[in-house]
Amino acid sequence: MAVRVLIADDSIAARELIRFHMQRFGYDVVAEAHNAAQAVALFKALRPDVVTLDVVMPIVDGIDSLTAFRSIRKEAPLAQIIVVSAVPFDRTRDTFIEEGALTYIIKPFTKFYFDEVRRKLERVLPEAKPQGLLGRTRRS
Fold this sequence. Notes:
The chain is α/β, with parallel strands linked by helices. The protein has helices at about 10-25, 35-45, 60-75, 90-100, 110-125, and strands at about 5-10, 30-35, 50-55, 80-85, 105. The protein has a single domain (about 5-115), classed as Rossmann fold (3-Layer(aba) Sandwich). Helix 2 packs parallel to helix 3 (about 60-75).
C-alpha cells in the first residue's frame, strides 16, 4: 500500500512541485488544500499518512494548523507532518519540531530537501520503503 499524502500550500507552483516529488517516490497524493482550514477538514476525512503543511496560508496559519493537527493526531498518531516555509530558520522551525513535525523544508525547494524527506519517512513509515523493482527510487 502506497504512502498517502495531503499537500497544503496556498501556492499552486509549490503544490505542483511537492506533488511531483511525492509521486516520484511512489507516494499517492490523495488531496491538495490551498489553506490550512481546508487541510484540516481533508485530513479528518481522508486520514493520510503524510501532510505537507505550509507555514503561512490564508484563513488559518501554519502554527494554528499544527495545533489542530496535534489534536487530530490523537486519532491518527502515525501521521507525519512535513512543514514547508519560505522562512529559512527561526523560532517557528523549532516550534514545529517540538510539536512533533517530522521535518521542516525551505522554499525554494531542491531535490536534496525531498530526498531527505524520503529518507526520514522511510525510517518512520514501513510502507514508505521501496517495494521491489517497481517501487525502487533512485538514491542520490
